[in-house]
Amino acid sequence: MSITKTICYCLLFSYTTAFISCRQSVSNTPKSSSTVNVTDFRGVEITLPKPAKRIICLIESALSGIYMLQAENQIIGISSGVYNKSTFAQYAVLDERIKNKTLPAPGNWDFVNIESIVALQPDLVIIWASQTESIESIEKHGIPVYGVLLKSVNDIYKEIHDFGIMTGKSQRADSLISYSRNEISQLRSTIKIAEIEKKNIYFMWTQGLLETAGTTSTVNELIEFAGAKNSCRTSKEHVVINKERLLDWNPDIIVMWYDPLKSPDDIVKLSEIQHIKAIKYKQVYELPSVFLCDLWTLKFPYAIKQLAKWCYPTSTEGLNMDTEKQKMLVKLYGEKGEKLIK
Amino acid sequence: MNRRIIQILFYIIPLPVILASLFIGPSHTATPGAIMDLFLKTSDDSNLIKSIVFDVRLPRILLSFLVGGSLAISGCSVQAIFRNPLTDSYILGLSSGAAFGAALALAYSFLPVQLSAFIFGLLAVSLSYFTARKNKNVSIVSLILSGIIVSGIFTALLTIVQFFSDPFKLQSIVHWTMGNLHNANWEKLRSSVIPITVGVFVIFVYRWRLNVLALGDDEAKTVGINPERDKIIILIAATLASSSAVAVAGIIGLYGLLVPHMIRMVTGPDNQQSIPLNFLFGGTFLLIIDDFSRTISSFEIPIGVFTMLLGAPFFIYLMKKTNIGWNN
To answer: Are the folds of A36-168 and A193-318 the same?
Structure first.
């Protein structure tokens, strides 16, 4: 009995040891080549066992990036804002499901329906990093969350680079990023302006004449890439200024964010700012469309070119904005870009 | 200091403050020296300075004065007719109605913000009034209660609009609800001056009746006054003045509550004396606060923030130094 028992115990011990070693060796195995690792804008490392195939993207600009990567089939949920905004027509061209309003919208920039998200069984959720409570709730269900926070052009590059890794479209992401970088550097070599000759631009948000962007904003980069200077030197992203400041700054050009209810003519008519150079010489312009000039996407070089053309018409004589638009849409959206042009 | 002297001071002080405010501002071009040159006509290059002084500062100064004056005088009259020191012109849902109207216009652009705020402000007050009306009578308690309910309803509606607004629109709505005078111009001043003047004038004419109404309905009837009719007239006038102020300047919280108490601490409870002083001091005080608000930083800080930060310590100081004045 004792010999049989001893053999049995020995065997049991050996199997147990072998099993534990086996488990340990599995967990210590380096991450397989298909594992996806990125660090989001919160500094949190996201690990996916394989590129995400079921993505919920609750940020409109980020969604645009995913369409640029041609990973639209991996999208299973979008922000409800896509259905309500002026950009709906363009997204309807990019995706039949959006056109037919069949793509679920389980949230937007400030509200997220956790139940709907869980029911969609995503393997990745893309959301603003500031939505901390929603992120916490989603992560509690074991769903990986990529938090986005865009403050500069480099952040846009990082976002697209990470999206490329997470969707398995790294090559396309890198190609789009280098396209965007090249577009900017080419433009900058065309318009080499001495500091003293730089045009002074006042940027005006849709909310009103006095709502502008400070130095820590993508708008500031837009202006600087176009070879100009931002009138507002306040280090705030979005700021309401005093009318006297605007008169003091005396900008050469006023650039309005696209506003369906206001036109440059309305600004030119404002009696209290008639002494501003931009008004005197009728240098008030409006960016043509939210979709084309989205500053949080790789489309921002188009807005930069448009600004440069307004500021330095002689140096940018060769730039035809219609051709630029067509080139950009085809490059960024492929075949669907051609449909967008139409 | 003698009460009489203080009262005289309150009558005298608005003009110098208005003039001094013309010299105060964030501009590095329109400095006091440059403005003096403009007035003395010693400078040739004065177009920009002229524009800053007459197109930017002057309409803002006058609008601040009118808004402050109308909120104070409305608050004082409402406190008198409700015989309640804790009420102001916002008690009948005016501020929440106006905020909802402004938010709706900011989010969906169906009407100009100012007009929408005015319409919904008046709508809220009318709703409160008709809800409280029973058998052709309006009791003060039911009027205040219905004001609280209507206010709650419009606050809920405002929350819904905010909830469905995008971040930029939401920011505009929040700015509006904090009170702002940075968009002041001649057009805004023109649009508000008539309703404010009418409202203020009616209250001024009825100021002695406020004293009688403050004693109670039975006492008012004994001296031949129809309290219901007079209350409604004064309420309409106060609403007209304050809703016009709210429409152009947003919600400047507690101003209509604080200023009447400050004046009462100095002059006592006689409305005949305090009504004109409320208008003059209310206007002057808001103007001084706005002078701080527009010069203290390179960007605009909502005036509602400063009315509390500067008004509250001053109020506490007066409260400690004098009698609250309600029971005098």
So the answer is: yes
Residues 89-118 of A with CB under 8 A from B: 109-111
CB contact (8 A) between residue B183 and residue A210: yes
CA dihedral A288, B109, B248, B191 (to 10 degrees): 90
**DSSP state letter for A78:** E
Asked if A149 reaches chain B (Cβ–Cβ under 8 Å), the answer is no
Residue A213 has phi, psi (to 5 degrees) of -115, 135
Classify domain A193-318 at the CATH class level.
Answer: alpha beta
Q: Using beta carbons and an 8 Å cutoff, which residues of B are at the interface with A?
A: 25-30, 47-48, 51-52, 55-57, 59, 106, 109, 163, 166-169, 171-172, 175, 180, 182-183, 185-186, 294, 298-300
- The half-sphere exposure of A65 on its side-chain side, counting CA atoms within 13 A, is 34
In chain A, count of helices (H) and strands (E)? 16, 12
Q: Does A280 touch chain B (CB under 8 A)?
A: no
pTM of the model: 0.77
Tell me the chain B residues in contact with residue A244 when contact means C-beta distances shorter than 8 Å.
25-27, 30, 52, 56-57, 294
Helices (H), chain B: 3-12, 14-22, 32-40, 47-50, 58-82, 94-108, 113-132, 140-163, 167-177, 186-205, 207-213, 217-222, 227-249, 255-267, 271-295, 303-321
* Two tokens, residue A62: 């980020």
Q: Which residues does B168 contact at the CB level (< 8 Å), separation at least 6?
A: A205, A206, A207, A238
Nearest-by-CA chain A residue for B24: A244
Question: Which residues from A are below 8 Å from B55, CB to CB?
Answer: 271-272
pLDDT score of A13? 59
pLDDT digits (tens, 9 = 90+) for B65-88: 999 999 999 999 988 888 878 788
SS3 A145: strand
Rounded CA separation A107/B157 (Å):
20
pLDDT < 50 regions, chain A:
1, 18-31
* pLDDT computed for residue A28 by the predictor: 37
With an 8 Å Cβ cutoff, is A161 touching chain B?
Answer: no
Q: State which residue of chain B sits closest to A275, comparing Cα positions.
A: B48
Answer yes or no: are the C-beta atoms of B176 and B106 closer than 8 Å: yes
Name the pLDDT band for B52 (thresholds 50, 70, 90).
confident
Asked if A261 has any chain B CB less than 8 Å from its own CB, the reply is yes
ipTM over 0.90: no
DSSP state of A130: T
Would you call B224 exposed, middle or buried from its count of C-beta atoms within 10 A (0-12, 13-18, 19+)?
A: exposed
Nearest CA in chain B to A274: B51
**The domain B3-321: what is its CATH number?**
1.10.3470.10
- Sorted by where each begins, the domain ranges of chain A are 36-168, 193-318
- Establish if A206 touches chain B: CB-CB under 8 angstroms: yes
The closest CB to that of A242, out of B26, B106, B166, belongs to B26
**Strand, coil or helix: A140:** helix
Architecture of the A36-168 domain: 3-Layer(aba) Sandwich (3.40)
The per-residue pLDDT for A22 is 43
